[in-house]
Inverse folding.
């Protein structure tokens, strides 16, 4: 998945790949279910606090912060390094 994939969509992919429920993610990360569902629907950005909690389960906090930044830049029309379609 590239910078054009939202953090929420990437999180959905990881949940499916690891056969993990939202409830299980919440128990492992400390996130509230409403926050996870908001992320999955792309209605909430990955804040530093959320990145910290997601990083407990998948990758690292920095990974989620960078993913959010790449998504925001792509939505604003900024060409990302390595983009082939721009």
């Amino acid at each position: 998945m590239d910078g054009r994939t939202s953090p929420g969509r990437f999180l959905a992919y990881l949940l499916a790949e690891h056969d993990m429920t939202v409830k299980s993610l919440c128990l492992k990360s400390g996130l509230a279910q409403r926050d996870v569902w908001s992320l999955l629907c792309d209605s909430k950005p990955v804040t530093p606090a959320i990145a910290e909690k997601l990083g407990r389960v998948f990758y690292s906090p920095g990974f989620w912060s960078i993913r959010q930044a790449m998504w925001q830049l792509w939505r604003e029309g900024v060409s990302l390094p390595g983009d082939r379609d721009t």
Summary: Residues 61-75 form the longest helix (15 residues). Helices lie at 7-17, 22-29, 33-40, 48-55, 61-75.
